[in-house]
Structure formats: structure tokens, C-alpha cells
Amino acid sequence: MIFYPSCILAIENESDRNFMMEIYAEYRDLMYYKISLVARGRKDEWEDILHDTAAALCDHIDTMRRLNRPRLTSYVVTAAENQAKNFLRYQDRHKRVSFEEALDGPDPLEGGGAEEEHAGEAGQGGDQLLRGGAAGQGMGPVDQGEVGGVHAHRPTASPMSRSSRAGRGSPAAAIMAG
């Protein structure tokens, strides 16, 4: 017996609901397999990703109805792969920290965070980290200043980017050229 995601069961149009139930029943294992390849080691989350994929597919029923079987298979598998990648990307950006870990970490209100850790690196290539790598890579010169009491690093526009924004016959271009 197949347990359908609630997003499929909630489809009001009976024809659309039956179509999605057929799609889910036919492609469930293939989607699950693709998700397992992308999200290895996170087996406890595969079912969630599968349900998210079904929800995303529910938004594209009209498109899927127009596809022949090979293209429909590709469409469904690609949707599962993309959903797994999006899930992993989200998880990486929003790391979960237990309450105990949060209490053991530095207090952001007392300072003592990343600013102090990297303070010694500033004269020893630490500013390269802020630009994105070794010399010659990154965003260009860095303007270091105070913003609201916090030391800030802001990329500054290079002369090349300024001149490309100013028109050739503009007063700004004449000033920069001379």
C-alpha cells in the first residue's frame, strides 16, 4: 500500500489528483533512489525530500500532462534531484545548533567572537581572506572603516569599474582620464 503525501491528497480537482497519484505511484522509487544518491548519509531526511518533490510537482501538473513518458521520467527525476540539492544547500546555510552548544559558544553581546580571533591575522594576509583568496583574486581593494562601532570591510570600486560606468564623453570620464 502506498501512502500518498498530503499535498497530493489535497488536490481538489479529481482528475489532477488521480494523475498525481499515478505519477507518485509510478515514480516514487525512482525519485527516492535519485534523492538517496544526492543526499547520501542523510537517510532520515530522504522521505521529507520526497514529499517536498511531490509538492513541487503538484505545481506543474499541466506541464507534466503534456510530456511523453521519456520526458516525463526525466522531468520527475530532475525535480527530485533539484529538490535534494536545494535541501542540502538550505541545510548547509542554516546549520542547526543544539541549545547546549549555543550556550557553550561565545556570547555575541560580549564581543570575543570572530573579530578577536582574526585580529592578529590582519597584517599577515588576513585581509586576503576577506577578499576571497590570494593576491590577485577577490573583489579588489578593501576599504576598512568603522560602521556602527564594528570594524567593517567593504570592497571599493576599482578605477576600471568606475571608468566603465562613466560614459566616454561624460565629465566624470574626463576627470578620471586627466
Q: Count up the helices.
A: 10
Distance between the termini: 79 Å
Class from helix and strand fractions: mainly alpha
Tell me, briefly, the overall form.
elongated
Helicity, as a percent range: 55-70%
Report strand %: 5-15%
Would you identify the regions where 5 or more consecutive residues have pLDDT less than 50?
115-168
Largest beta sheet: strand ordering: 1-2
Q: Write down the overall mean pLDDT.
A: 72
Rg over alpha carbons: 26 Å
Largest sheet: 2 strands, antiparallel
How many extended strands?
Answer: 2
**H-E string:** HHHHHHHHEEHH
Describe the structure.
With 178 residues, the protein is mainly alpha-helical. 60% of the residues lie in helices and 7% in strands. The protein is built from ten helices and two strands, in the order ααααααααββαα. Strands 1-2 form a two-stranded antiparallel sheet. Strand 1 (142-147) and strand 2 (150-155) form a beta hairpin. Helix 2 packs across helix 5 and helix 3 crosses helix 5 (69-93). It is elongated and about 60 Å long. Residues 115-168 have low confidence and may be disordered.
